Amino acid sequence: MSGPGTIPLAERRWSLLVTALAFALPVVFVLVPLAIFLGYSFFSVDQGTIVHTLSLGNYFRFFTDPIFLPVFWNTIVLCLSVAAICILLAYPAAYFLTTLKGRWRYALLMLLLVPLLMSYVIKIYAIRSILGLNGFLNKALVGLGILQEPSTLFVFNMNAILLTLTLLLIPFAILPIFLSLERIPQVLLRASDDLGASGLQTFLRITLPLSLPGVASAASFVFVLAIGDFLTPQMVGGISGFTFGRILYSQFGTAYNWPFGAALSVALAVVVIAAILVGERFGRNRGTAI
Amino acid sequence: MNQNTDLLTLRSVSKSYGTVPVLHDIDLSIKDGEFLTVLGPSGSGKTTVLRLIGGLEPLTSGEIRLDGQDISRMPINRRPFNTVFQDYALFPHLTVSGNVGYGLSVRHVPRKEIARRVAEALELVQLGRFTDRFPAQLSGGQRQRVALARALICQPRLILLDEPLAALDLELRRQMQEFLKSIQREIKTTFLFVTHDQEEAIGMADRICVMQAGHIRQLGTPHELYYKPNCEFVARFFGENNLVAGKLGSVQGELRSIETALGRLVCSISDQPHLKTAADGASAFAAFRPEALHLADAKDTDNRFSGTIADMAFAGSSTVATITAGADHTGQRLRLRMPSRVDGSTLKSGATISLAFAPHEGHLVLA
What Gene3D superfamilies does its record include (chain A) (predicted)? Predict the structure, then answer.
């Protein structure tokens, strides 16, 4: 007999406890805070104190006030652009990595991931000094004769946010693309050659489609990380680079309107969850593993 | 198709990986329209031969000629050969018809013609109903047939099959063997089939090329290999065999004697001139198949010896006796295979019996 009845009582208690913990952690640290936020979004503020009466006022304000929706859309477009640029830059890099042999491949991959070990704030400062009016980028462009004089095109505005987020988030795009490329069995590429395909045809018809799940995960990673970021826009965005994250931040800080901030967070959370679902949907291998 | 013209010729082909040689000076001719099986244990270089012909790997030296033209350096995608890979290598993101039509679509064949030829090819491999399935939705045998259809749709001069049946279970493997053979007869394309399974090789091949340690040991029909192996390796590897070591004796027409621990044995040397000319006293083996060995009766005058039955094993259609023979009945182990009977064998373990084989059923191989 080896049914559940034979397991010692103490052991069964243990396993129950572990199971409860495994469920409790995400519930306590993720679901409960989210629920509290959702609750707060229906409250309001009067003279600096929170009024605990339920109303849809915050959501009404979000959809009708001419400030919030445009910033919301612009932020989504910005983050989609960041994701797109990250993919375009990360794909060739990841592809190049998979063409390397053995040790070199992982050494170089590590090197590409090293920036993740550095403090986020320090990296933003570094990029800020590169992007500035007297920064490295302007000096280089003037030095190469591409520009006559330093440009303000990427100084404290949306472009600066775009460039900075792209630089910061590229490692998050390289990794999933690299993994999906590496998982493609070499014999499939040989089979394609064998059937008469050229190198380009093999890439377009076999490698690219089979790596799309990695591309989808990479895009949703980058998008979600970018849209939740308020520090980068705050530090390199200046006055014109106003993103949804900054509005959110100001509601909890300067404006001290937690209920409205909570309502804005809910709107953001909806977009983030949608992005994750879309990434997950296309990140799956269409049930066609070999 | 003329079975007598050579389609493909390998001339002193060698291959090394770094400093490790895997093929030594291989010479091999593949005839147009034949089913040639390359048979060998793992590490014999048989798959390397296939990969070199397919263009999956470059040769170290030598040349490969197709219709007399050197194709050693022709890139893989220009060679008129297609491969059925060991694990099928179907494209997981394409449907069955996408997979089968792949070779045509990369050559920009018109869509309509692709559809027609895909339907034909799938009909040929009896998968007409599965066009829209993905490989993951197919069984092993079905994937195998998709891989075959994908290879033959481009009408290659040669189809290379790399142990394609290894992953299938026994029953399915038998079916696929017959199926492959019948398809090959139908489309009259040359097949080069690599396997380590000698039963598979015997059942399908027109000719078999036995390889060992990077050398071709023998090339011939299954019958030739079975009854006239030219070396100890082939005699032992290809089917069950009894080998008895000894020294060559005198030639008497188509027969030659050999002095062994079982006494003087006489074996056939017909069509094997090198055995006729070999020196007296040279080391050799007398080889005779388990089914050629039988209980001696009054008619048997040659090749008689006695032995003790060590073990009896029932193997379905036949029963195999393991026998210790030789002067003291301990030295030489032999096998005797006889048809099984419903009321069991009269032979019992421990019994001492008198055995014989007919001279024309025994042969010699040089040691």
Answer: MetI-like
CA B290 to chain centre: 20
pLDDT above 90 for A239 = no
Q: What is the ipTM of this complex?
A: 0.81
**pLDDT score recorded for residue A242:** 86
Q: Are B338 and B294 in contact (CB under 8 A)?
A: yes
pLDDT digits (tens, 9 = 90+) for B80-110: 999 999 889 999 999 999 999 999 999 999 9
Give pTM, 2 decimals: 0.81
Centre a 10 Å sphere on the Cβ of residue A193 and count the other Cβ atoms it contains: 24
Contacts for A32-41 with beta carbons within 8 Å, 24 or more apart?
Answer: A34/A269, A37/A262, A37/A265, A37/A266, A37/A269, A38/A262, A38/A266, A39/A262, A40/A258, A40/A259, A40/A262, A41/A259, A41/A262, A41/A263, A41/A265, A41/A266
Sheet containing strand B294-295, edge to edge, reads B294-295, B352-356, B304-315, B318-325, B332-339
CATH of A72-283, one of 1.10.1040.20, 1.20.1250.20, 3.10.450.50, 1.10.3720.10: 1.10.3720.10
Q: In what order do the strands lie in the sheet with B158-162?
A: B81-84, B158-162, B190-195, B35-39, B207-212, B215-220
Interface contact A205, partner B, CB < 8 A: yes
Q: Where are the domains of chain A?
A: 72-283
Gap from A180 CA to chain B (nearest CA, Å): 14
Q: Does A192 touch chain B (CB under 8 A)?
A: yes
The total of other beta-carbon atoms located within 10 Å of residue B35's CB is: 21
Distance CA B197, CA B243 (A): 21
Q: In sequence order, what are the beta bridge partners of B284?
A: B246, B366
Buried b / exposed e over A70-79, threshold 16 CB at 10 Å, is ebbeebbebb
Name, of A25-39, A75-89, B3-17, B134-148, the range with top average pLDDT: A75-89
**B306 exposed, middle or buried (CB, 10 Å; 0-12, 13-18, 19+)?**
middle
Q: What fold, for B6-227? A: Rossmann fold (3.40.50)
CA atoms within 13 A on the CB side of B59: 24
Cβ-count burial of A114 within 10 angstroms (0-12 exposed, 13-18 middle, 19+ buried)?
exposed
- Closest residue on chain B to A210 (Cα): B93
Phi, psi of B360 (to 5 degrees): -75, -10
* DSSP classification of residue B279: P
SS3 A116: helix
Per residue in A258-288, pLDDT (tens digit) is 899 999 999 999 999 999 998 888 876 554 4
Centroid of chain to Cα B284: 24
Is the separation of the CB atoms in B165 and B176 below 8 Å?
A: yes
CATH 2.40.50.140 fits B240-366, yes or no: yes
A236-to-A140, A243, A249, A251, B245 alpha-carbon distances in Å: 20, 11, 15, 20, 89
Q: Do A290 and B106 touch (CB under 8 A)?
A: no
The DSSP secondary structure of A206-275, one letter per residue, reads IIHHHHHHHHHHHHHHHHHHHHT--HHHHHH-TTT---HHHHHHHHHTTT--HHHHHHHHHHHHHHHHHH
Of B148, B177, B150, B149, nearest to B165 (Cα)?
Answer: B177
Residue limits of CATH 2.40.50.140 in chain B: 240-366
